[in-house]
Amino acid sequence: MLPADLVIIACIAYVALLFAVAFLGDRRARRAPGGWLSSPLVYTLSISIYCTSWTFFGAVGSAVRNGLEFATIYIGPTIVFVGWWVFLRKLVAVGRTYHTTSVADLISARFGKSSALGALVTIIAVVATTPYIALQLKALTASFQVLTYPAGAVAAASLSLKPDFSIAFWIAAGLCAFSIIFGVRNISVNERHHGVIAAIAVEAVVKLVALLAVGLWVVLGHEGGPTAMFQNAPANLTNPADTFGSRWVSLVILAGAAVICLPRQFQVTVVENTSERQLRTASWLFPLYLFLICLFVIPIALAGLQRLPEGSNPDLFVLTLPFSADQGTIGLLAFLGGFSSATSMVIVSSIALSTMISNHLVMPLALSLRLVPDASARLMRNFILTARRASIVFIVFLGFLYYRLSATSDALAAIGLISFCGVAQFLPSLVGGLYWHRATQTGALAGLAAGFAIWAYSLFLPSFEGAFLLPASAIADGPFGLGWLKPHALFGLDRFDPLVHALFWSMTANLTLFLGVSILTDPTPLARYQSRLFIDIFRRQTESELSVMRRTAKIRDLRGIANRILGPGEAVSLFVTQNAHDHAMTASDELIATVEQKLAANVGAATARALVSSVVSSETISVEELKRLADETEQIRAYSEELEQKSREIEATADELARANRQLREIDERKDEFLSQVSHEVRTPMTSIRSFSDILLQNPEMEATQKQRYLGVIQEESLRLTRLLDGILDLNQQGAAGTRAAATTFDPELALDHALASCEALARAAGVGISRTKPVRRAVVDGDRDRLAQVFINLISNAIKYNSARKPSVTIATRVRKGRYEAIISDNGPGVPEAERETIFAKFARGAAAGQTGAGLGLAISRQIVTGFGGTLTVSQSAEGGAAFTISLPLAQPARHASGTG
Amino acid sequence: MSAREQDDRRDDRRGARDLASVLPFAAVFLFLPPFILIFTAPVAPGGIPLIVLYIFGIWALVIVCAAIVAARLSASGERDEATRRPDEPAKS
User: Fold this and answer.
1) Which of A168-182, A628-642, A821-835 is least confident?
2) What is the CA radius of gyration of chain A?
3) A93-97, A201-205, A263-267, A727-731: lowest mean pLDDT where?
4) Residue B88 has what DSSP assignment?
5) CA A657/CA A782 separation, integer angstroms
6) What is the C-alpha to C-alpha distance for residues A601 and A189, in angstroms, rounded to an integer?
7) pLDDT for position B90
8) Nearest C-alpha of chain A: how many angstroms from B50?
9) Where is the chain membrane-spanning (chain B) (predicted)?
10) Running DSSP on this structure, what letter comes out for residue A360?
11) How far apart are CA A323 and CA A317, in angstroms?
């Protein structure tokens, strides 16, 4: 055991630390708003308030009792958060944009700022949260008692200790104090609860570290690996088929609903949110937190079953396991983890609920009974703050009462699920309100009331086991002995466990009435207006939309209200644009809307509306106008889609044009280049012809041999010129005729035969040996045989002419591969350097080596011809180190093949 | 920025959005019966029951996917957000 004093000192030290963090957080937020306190990490940590002592202690208990079922409580929220884009994003955007103060505020604002709806949601939330707070008190009390039990924690856990309500009372009182000091300093939610959020973030880290520490200690200290660990696992873990029934599905749904609807979750996720960036990070970081929390639950449960005496309370394994091995430090850490998870839940829940109670129950009542002190701003604000402080005490006290009355009730998880099912009743109105224009406030009221009533009857009241309202006999046999009204088997439906049963009936009634009544009734004009604002949150509001609501009020009156609720400071800034002598004048619609929005951020939409309405002398909302706007929005939507489509088309056309333009420019440039090259090429032989003929004309008495030599040069140059012009002509014909060239189907080997015959004389003269592999049989290609022969001649004569090897040789190999005919003409000459392998196919290109004469057009023409046939002409290095030219042509289609070779 | 890059970015963003919309439904499919029943067979690879491995494995996978989606959405959405006034709803 640990001495009670030590435990109390540890608790007080821990709470003091939280106070310090909260205090510093508040101060920092005032100095530098938007600092690290609004970082996505802190936001995520504050959301992990979802993990209460139910998680910290109860998850292991649940794993022992029901196997993997504990995971559903964390899988549901995981699905909701990874799917933030689908729903949460919209909810958070609405809350952020319209300064929503609570889940009751959001629902009431959506359905025409209905105060009845706000009140009903608040009542449901308070009643549904009561068991949850009781659960925390129970866990705290039990862990404290076990820790300080004189005979040791292990012994204490195997007895069923009588709960010590005095401990519970002092814990409750301490929690009230903390919540009041840090949660209810100001009444506006615009100034968010930075101090509390900072403290909550610290608590989130503490509970995670504590649980991981216990988990790691268990896993690392375990001998024998996983096989030994799972050896004595309960049957629901090793043979889990029965786990995945209706209860599994129900729990996933409930947990998913709860992470949205629980007042404290709504508070940290929606109300305290400042940017979408926060939510985006939380979408994966929060599931990761849950994952880590759950990681060691099963090992701890199994170790507890193995090491602790039979009959130990599994809800306290996390605490008793370390003590059973005399690990006092880890044990104390575990206790603090549980302490922090419970305190953070109670603090934020009571803050969230107190805001709801003061805004939706106290203020409307006080306003209608004229109890609100409107003499001065200070009195008014004090009234609101007092209402909130009293609400906190009331809420925690209710939790304490529930704990007292139902103290015999067993597992932590069972209590928590009662709360989940209660708050899940908000889901239809919340989802319907954000997506369905036709949802009306009457429908929401009917659905919520019915769902709440059935939940209370079939789940909440029976949880007292006869101690409150519903006697034990009525729970067992139905009220007045009416069997079909048995709370756990309504209408004789007794095949499910109580939770699934209650969820089924309450949700059925809730949904049916919500949908049915909504269809049958018409929304009020204000509800219609609000639905447009909420559902189309991601669309910009148009001017005409804002002017649908027309109200008249005197500026003076409006300022009076603003002064009282917001305080003079903020009121001045609101009215700064108005001159003092204008105050008797009517306020603009815009000003009225702004004031109402500011008020709503403090006291909720419904109360704000009631306040503003008290000074508004006339109000009209044109339903016709709203309907017209709805049609207009549809038209605009269609129109803008059309526009977008058009602009995409235009963009594509512009791209096309730009590309064509680029191509034309390129061709133009190439043509210029070509022309200048041609002139240059023609000019060189012309110059030498002219100069030699000049010499001959001017020196008639020149020697005959000299004359002869000069004439030879002239003839040679004019021959070169002719060849050049022939080549250019050829090139142009190719370019112009190109694809038009008469295409026949022929055997390329015949063209090769022809080319070899033509080159024979040249080869013999140069002493070059030509070898040829076995011709391919029955290969046919499309094109012009003479043209192909021309290409062969060009390549073979090049191979002969430019071969400087001592024993020059040329090899011609042909083959058919992958549907293509290939001819490779290789030599053992100097080869083509890698850098020049593409450029030699350009017009007027000649090899860099000496002795390269000719027009430099042959290869260009050859390539053009081959390309015209749909083939390719490339050069590489031959096996002998020379050049290897490869012609590759597609084979002709089989149908034409027959006629071609026939 | 060229038209193609803009297109790519738009496609990227649209792809991330689609993924973000599909992810929760995929998770529902994987975590709820009947699909999950496939993994309830009483086998224990490495001493750990298959169902435990399955649930925690899929859980981790879903979280990784969500992180990737968030990163891609933030990479393509940062500029849009920066140009928006505070407290003004995003325009989809």
Assistant:
1) A628-642
2) 45
3) A727-731
4) P
5) 34
6) 6
7) 39
8) 9
9) 21-44, 50-75
10) I
11) 10
**Structural domain includes residue B84:** no
Tell whether the model's pLDDT for residue A544 goes beyond 60. Answer: no
Question: Any bridge partners for residue A411, and if so which?
Answer: none
Helices (H) and strands (E) counted in chain B, each on its own, are: 2, 0
- Rounded (10°) CA dihedral A70, A72, A76, A77: 20
If residue B3 lies in a helix (H) or strand (E), which one and from where to where?
helix B3-31
Mean of the pLDDT values across residues A641-647? 86
Strand arrangement of the beta sheet that strand A883-890 belongs to: A769-772, A809-817, A820-827, A883-890, A872-877
Longest CA pairwise span in chain A (Å)? 150
Q: What is the pLDDT of residue B85?
A: 39
Q: How far, CA to CA in Å, does A696 sit from each of A167, A545, A700, A715, A755?
A: 132, 99, 6, 13, 41
Does A75 or A734 have the greater pLDDT score? A75
On chain A, the residues whose CB falls within 8 A of the CB of B56 are 291, 294-295
pLDDT surpassing 90 at residue A860 = no
Angle between helices A165-183 and A194-220 (to 10 degrees): 130
Judge whether B65 and B19 are in contact, CB under 8 Å.
Answer: yes
Q: Is residue B35 part of a domain?
A: yes
Q: How confident is the model at residue A898 (pLDDT cuts 50, 70, 90)?
A: very low
Q: Is the pLDDT of residue A283 over 80?
A: yes
Q: Which of B7, B51, B64 is the best mutation test for A, with the most CBs of A within 10 A? A: B51
Token pair for residue A644? Answer: 């977008």
Separation between Cα atoms, residue A623 and residue A524, nearest integer Å: 9
Q: Which residues of chain A are within 8 Å of residue B89 when distances are taken between CB atoms? A: 93, 97, 537-540
pLDDT band at A638 (very low <50, low <70, confident <90, very high): confident
Measured in whole angstroms, the distance separating CA A364 from the mean position of its chain's CA atoms is: 40
Contact residues, A window 20-79, toward B, CB-based 8 Å cutoff: 68, 71, 75, 78-79
| Contact (CB, 8 A) for A490 and A450 | no
Residue B66 maps to a domain: yes
Task: Find all residues with CB under 8 Å of A325, minimum gap 6, and list them.
Answer: A221, A307
**pLDDT, position A181:** 81
Whether residue A598 contacts residue A570, with contact meaning beta carbons closer than 8 Å, is answered with yes
Candidate ranges A12-26, A183-197, A671-685; pick with highest mean pLDDT: A12-26
Q: Is A642 exposed, middle or buried (0-12, 13-18, 19+ CB in 10 A)?
A: exposed
- For the stretch A490-512, pLDDT in tens is 888 888 888 999 999 999 999 99
Tell whether the model's pLDDT for residue B83 goes beyond 60: no
Q: Which residues pair with A823 in a beta bridge?
A: A814, A887
Q: Is A276 on the interface with B (CB under 8 A)?
A: yes
**Nearest in space to A314 (alpha carbons), one of A62, A46, A612, A627:** A62
**Counted domains in chain B:** 1
Which domain range does residue B29 map to? 13-78
What tens digit of pLDDT does each residue of A32-51 get?
766 777 889 999 999 999 99
All residues of chain A having their beta carbon less than 8 Å from the beta carbon of residue B24 are 79-80, 82-83, 86
Burial A192-224 (b: 16+ CB within 10 A, else e): bbbbbbbbbbbbbebbbebbebbbebbeeebee
Contact, A43 vs A280, CB < 8 A? no
Residue B64 lies in a domain: yes
Is A761 an interface residue toward B (CB < 8 Å)?
no
- Which of A:182-241 have CB within 8 Å of B? 225-230, 233, 237-241
DSSP single-letter state for residue A524: P
Report the alpha-carbon distance of residue A176 to residue A892 in Å, rounded.
92
